Amino acid sequence: MFILKTKKSFFRAINFKQILFFIFLLVSVSTSFAQKKIEIKGVVIDEFENPIPYAAVGIPSKQIGTSTNDDGVFSFQIAPENLADILEISTIGFKTYKIKFQEYLDKKIEKIILIEDVVTLAAITLEKIDDIVKKALKKVKKNTLSDKHQLNMVYRRSSVENNQTRFIVEHYLNVLDYGPSDNRFDEIGLAEVRKSADYRFAFKKQPVHAIHIMGQINPLRQRIYESDYNWVRDGDTSYDGEDVIIVKGTKKDQKVNKENNWIKFYVGMDTYSIYKIDVSRHANEFSNLKAFYIYKKDSNGKLVLSYHNREAKFRTPVSAQKQKLLKLKSRNVQSSYRHEAIVLSIETDKKKFDVKNTIYDRKDIGDYEAKYNAIFWQNIALPPETKFYKKSVKELESIYGVSLEEQFKLVNKE
Q1: Neighbour tally for 202: CB within 10 Å
Q2: For residue 21, what is the enclosing H or E element?
Q3: pLDDT tens-digit readout, 31-85
Q4: pLDDT of residue 122
Q5: Three-state secondary structure string covering 167-222
Q6: Crossing angle of helices 404-411 and 387-397, rounded to 10°
Q7: In angstroms, how far is CA 414 from the centroid of its own chain?
Q8: Nearest alpha carbon to residue 274 among 298, 305, 251, 228
Q9: Half-sphere exposure of 186 (CA within 13 A, CB side)
Q10: Contact of 381 with 184, CB cutoff 8 Å
Q11: Pick from 181, 116, 118, 186: which is nearest to 149 by CA?
């Protein structure tokens, strides 16, 4: 083995190429540290200063962005090289807003006012509603991103018992998908997990990860047929300059109250794209469901999932001992699951797909375990909390007066 014994011999041993390499390395490290993310935030309102919820915000061409919460507030991060890009904000019923990121920052804009789009559907003769739905369903694959892509999302579920949230679990997921034209997700990776303290007394389990159910109840993934429903026109709106008709369908063979069993599609009249889906189903006297899905356009005009939430209500049986202990009036406790999925980014380059800890188990979302990475959750650019989520957090924290953040630190093992 050759050992360098003196500083002089050390420097003689380093040739010119090595010196250049070290200089390059130092420059690269310095550049890396300089590339700090820039936070973009604001609030989106209409001309009457009403907040606009669930608007798509970001750079569609680069699949970067987020959505506004119920208060119209948004925040996300971009790299310095994105300052020359265009910030786009779009939502149903309003004209799309566009501005360069650099200009947005220079002007120190805090409020973005969206202008309501004029709908012309009332002035023209529409084709039959059934035909509109039929065309929209037939064109799902054409109108959505159906090439394999990766959805990077935060998925949350709150467990509610006796009208109070008693457990919250959050997963950061990497999902490989072919869009709603496929009846299931191709692959699901569980990258990060965190849970609250568990105050439940009725431990109802779901047989699969909750994201599978999100896909299963999506009418576009169910292969529904327009002929199985009675369709009516339920309103008009617009999206990104396209007139949109809202259609409502109820099952023809419905045996329960039709008022509580319907689906709504927001259909563009030029492309027959389905921009939003509302679902309300009352399965029986013991359970019911309300959900919606919002899609946004990518750079090629293809629709991709942006946001989803749902609440499934049901009754959970408890033992006579728990009924007495908790002073409950019934052995069947009113319960619900509140779900929320927020797509943070989309990757279409297959070489950059990165699915970690693929889920194969068929078990409840609350039963998955993973090492808690506090730094990840501190640094991830989550959008502002929705009222849907804030309600769950407030209820959970009120049980023992312990903040959710503190519960994350105490419960999850790093």
Answers
A1: 20
A2: helix 16-34
A3: 444 458 899 999 999 999 999 999 999 998 888 888 899 999 999 889 999 999 9
A4: 65
A5: EEEEEEEEEEECCCCCCCCCEEEEEEEEECCCCCCCCCCCCCCHHHHHHHCCCCCC
A6: 70
A7: 26
A8: 305
A9: 17
A10: no
A11: 186
> Which pLDDT tens digit goes with each residue over 373-406?
999 998 888 888 998 899 999 999 999 899 999 9
- The percent of the chain in helix, strand and coil, each rounded to the nearest 5, is 25, 40, 35
Which of 142, 81, 136, 96 has its CA nearest to residue 300?
A: 142
pTM, two decimals, is 0.85
User: How confident is the model over 86-119, as pLDDT tens digits?
Assistant: 999 999 999 999 999 999 999 999 999 999 998 7
Residue 164's Cα: distance from chain center in Å?
Answer: 24
**Rounded Cα distance, 98 and 88, in Å:** 5
Yes or no: say if 101 and 87 are a contact pair by the CB < 8 Å rule: yes
Rounded to whole angstroms, how far apart are CA atoms 340 and 393?
13
Q: Please state, in angstroms and rounded to a whole number, the distance separating the CA atoms of residues 393 and 374.
A: 18
| CA dist., res. 280 & res. 285, Å (int) | 14
